[in-house]
Structures are given as C-alpha cells and as structure tokens.
Amino acid sequence: MNPIETFSEKEVGLGWHPKRVLLILLMVSSTMIFASLTSGFIVRRDEGNWREFDLPTIMGINTIVIALSSIALQWAYSSAKKDEIGRAKIGLALTLGLGLVFLVGQWLCWGDLVASRTFFGGIDANVSGSFVYVLMGMHAFHLLAGLIFLAVVLRRTFNYQVHSRALLSIGNASILWHFLGALWLYLYLFLLLNH
After folding, report:
1. CA angle 17, 20, 26 (to 5 degrees)
2. How many helices (H) and strands (E) are present in the chain, helices listed first?
3. Exposure of 100 by Cβ count < 10 A (0-12 exposed, 13-18 middle, 19+ buried)?
4. Confidence of residue 14 (pLDDT cuts 50, 70, 90)
5. What is the pLDDT of residues 108-137, one digit of tens each?
6. For 163, phi and psi rounded to 5 degrees?
7. What does the angle CA 57 – CA 58 – CA 61 come to, to the nearest 5 degrees?
8. CB-CB contact of 19 with 168 (8 Å)
9. Which of 1, 65, 124, 151 sits most deeply, having the most CB atoms within 10 A of its CB?
10. How many CA atoms lie less than 13 Å away from 55 in the CB half-sphere?
11. Are 90 and 148 in contact, with CB atoms under 8 Å apart?
C-alpha cells in the first residue's frame, strides 16, 4: 500500500468549493472590520466632544431598497435552480438596478449630511460625523464589489453558464449579497440606536 494514497484517503474536507471557502473568509474579515469600526465608535463616543445629529431619512429608504434587492436575488437563484433562465436574468438585473439605486441613495445621504453641516473632515468636522461617513463609505465600497460580482454572474447567465447544474456563481453572489444586506441593516440599526 502506497503511504501517499493512504494519507489522501484519510483527508477530510469541508465538502465546499474553494471559491465558497474564500467567500466565507472574505465575509469573516469584513465582519471583523465593521465590528472594530463600530466598537471604535462606541469607545470614542464615551470619551466626550461628540456632536449629536439626525440621520438622513434616506437611510431608511435605502434599507428598504437593499431588502428588495435581496428578495430579487433570491428569486433569481430559485429560478436558476429550476432552469428558468429568463427569470434568473430578470432577477439579477433587478438586483443590479436596486444596488445602483442604493449607491445613489448613499450619495444623496452624504449630501444631506453636508447640508446639515456634518462633515467628514476639516475645521467644522466632528469625529461623530466622520465615523458615519467611514461606516457608510466602507459599506458602499463592499457593495460596489458585490455589484461587480453580480454583473459577472449576469453575463454568465446570458451565456447559459448558470443553470440548475451550475449554481456556484449565483449561489456565491446570493450569499455575498444577503451578507451585505444584513451588514447594512446592522449598521443602520447601530447608528439609529447610538444617535
């Protein structure tokens, strides 16, 4: 008996595709980044010299938009599982569109913050506003990466590379997008409860 063959037979894996494992590791690292930022927010707030301000209303609207985009992507994934490729394309396109609406909403939100004299930096800035910009900006960056991933999956769907026997890409996109939606909900509720 060959010792190399014996060793490989005893190896136990997760049964996950390496791309899925990589995605999970990326989500864990993102979670750690946001946990450290929100922890820093709480510690810094308790030190004083903290300016209170109202959060823009559009943040609530954006929460609804990202929830709808998650529903659309779940519909796309379910459709791909049933080989309803036309519906999968529509669901992915809707998710992309709603993701872009979310990013525009973030831009408008930053405009509302500036209009209420809450700045990221400069002589009139306060660290409370800076934290809000950083949290929202980091989420927007992650969401932009998610949109690029979704666009790649949509292109694959148009090339008939996504169907009931090839669900890895749309499955990973779905996991990432739901994670980003949950992350936004966490940030929104965190900011609501801490302002």
Report:
1. 145
2. 6, 0
3. middle
4. low
5. 999 999 898 887 777 777 888 889 999 999
6. -165, -175
7. 105
8. yes
9. 65
10. 20
11. no
Verdict on whether the full-model pTM lies above 0.85: yes
pLDDT at 145: 95
| Tokens describing residue 65 | 């938009």
pLDDT band at 7 (very low <50, low <70, confident <90, very high): very low
Q: How far does the chain reach from its first CA to its final CA, in angstroms?
A: 67
φ/ψ of 166, rounded to 5, equals: -140, 75
Tell me which long-range contacts 3-10 makes (C-beta under 8 A, separation of at least 24). Answer: none
Q: How confident is the model at residue 47 (pLDDT cuts 50, 70, 90)?
A: confident
Per DSSP, the residues of 105-174 read: HHHHHHHHHHHTT--SSSTT--HHHHHHHHHHHHHHHHHHHHHHHHHHHHHHHHTT--BTTB-HHHHHHH
